[in-house]
């Protein structure tokens, strides 16, 4: 390693270290702040007195949430959506990717199939035709709209196709010689060899479904069918500012139970925080795999 | 090892994926027809009267739309530039960090906002920049009157661009960091022996070493020129900032799904889809040409 000896270099090291630590705090403090608000007294929060530490520490907001059935109903809808959406999404992604990873000789018109996928990834009819289509299927107010409406995650399919293609073909040939059919080769050879990349798309699918709010908003007519993010969006964000003048906004800001809202926001973050350690172990592989070439 | 008997199994495997694609991606594309109709939900797509290019003519005649397109491009280009440069600077600073043990923890923590939804982050941001939030409290110490940040049209764009960069810089830095570790340390050592200081090495070894990554990311971001980020703006904006913050996607949402002007909203959405499609296709060709990047 190169020695850094001169004063300028040392000074730079100190400043650089400080700046980076400040940047890191900048990413964490907002989340910490929400937790502090949720644990503070309502009056202190509305007065804007809370900063880094709770004032009038209490769990009242969390106790209050326990009595809100709408919150739990939405939470449960989100859980169902994540479970179904991930199983369906990842399962179909893998199934679609396997034949597409074959050569044009093994699967005639393989490139045409691929171009259809890429076209669907790059072009879409826009929000309104998409909405009208889902409505014509009769999926409004159904959990299946939330599970399926996002359609096939094409980017993930391409990711898996690229990954499958880079596995040594000798293994497939050996399996073929031993008499394994396509299903057996897929399930017993390709899937077990793709652990990290499957983990990557699974985690991203989970986070994607958990965080999604727009489909929850437009594909449901009843508030009782909202997933959690839409519930929070309606309750917290839209109440604050939309369709009000600045005086009204100030007034509402004061009357709002910010402590309770912060508690709901914090609870909505918890699932992401739980899978975060797994996510950040795998997603670097995911990003770099996106650019894998033949 | 071509086997004809395998073929029907391959088709069977692909069937669910392509049926899903047809139902939820390809069928909606035919809804584009609505842009050329005077769509009436009661009559449906098949029976609604034709309008030719009327929707498009009307669209260009309302001044609102021009502003909406302008807002979209300004915000999107601001984000593209910021999301290219800030993560680069961050990655270089992190790479230069003297205490190597801290690199990993810092990296792990700065990704976090990327994985949280805009619903949640917008809520936090609105609280922090709120009328009696911490930012205004801090300003008051310096004797500045509290500002209603998200109620001021001239502050909305910088706030949107800034918070978007804040959310994504850790994640966007990953690719740069991967490229930085790919630079041969022997180059740095040779330059140091020849008397190149840290800054000289940054300029002549580090930056050229990752230039192809920078160019690739710049090209690929081109497709986002009309993509200003619906989720973020939808959760942060309000009527007070429509003049600077209303973008195509939020306008289409309000025109189509709130005011039920289906045909007009479809026409505007279609224009966006077509332009974006052309931009992305061109950027992919350029990426292939200049850096050898291929999607599959």
Describe this structure in words.
- The complex is a heterodimer of chains A (294) and B (296).
- By secondary structure, chain A is mainly alpha-helical.
- Chain A folds into two domains: 7-60, no CATH class; 65-289, MetI-like (MetI-like fold).
- Chain A is 74% helix and 0% strand.
- Chain A is built from 15 helices and no strands.
- Chain A has helices spanning 7-38, 42-46, 60-66, 69-100, 110-122, 127-136, 143-148, 154-166, 169-177, 182-193, 195-211, 214-218, 228-241, 246-255, 258-289.
- The longest helix of chain A has 32 residues, at 7-38.
- The two termini of chain A are 35 Å apart.
- Mean pLDDT of chain A is 85; it is low at 290-294.
- Chain B is mostly helical and 296 residues long.
- Chain B has one domain: Orthogonal Bundle (MetI-like fold), CATH 1.10.3720.10.
- Chain B has 14 helices and no strands.
- Chain B has helices spanning 4-30, 44-47, 54-61, 63-96, 103-110, 118-128, 134-141, 153-181, 185-193, 198-221, 230-236, 242-245, 248-258, 262-291.
- The mean pLDDT of chain B is 89.
- At the A-B interface, α1, α4, α5, α6 and α8 of A face α1, α4, α5, α6 and α7 of B.
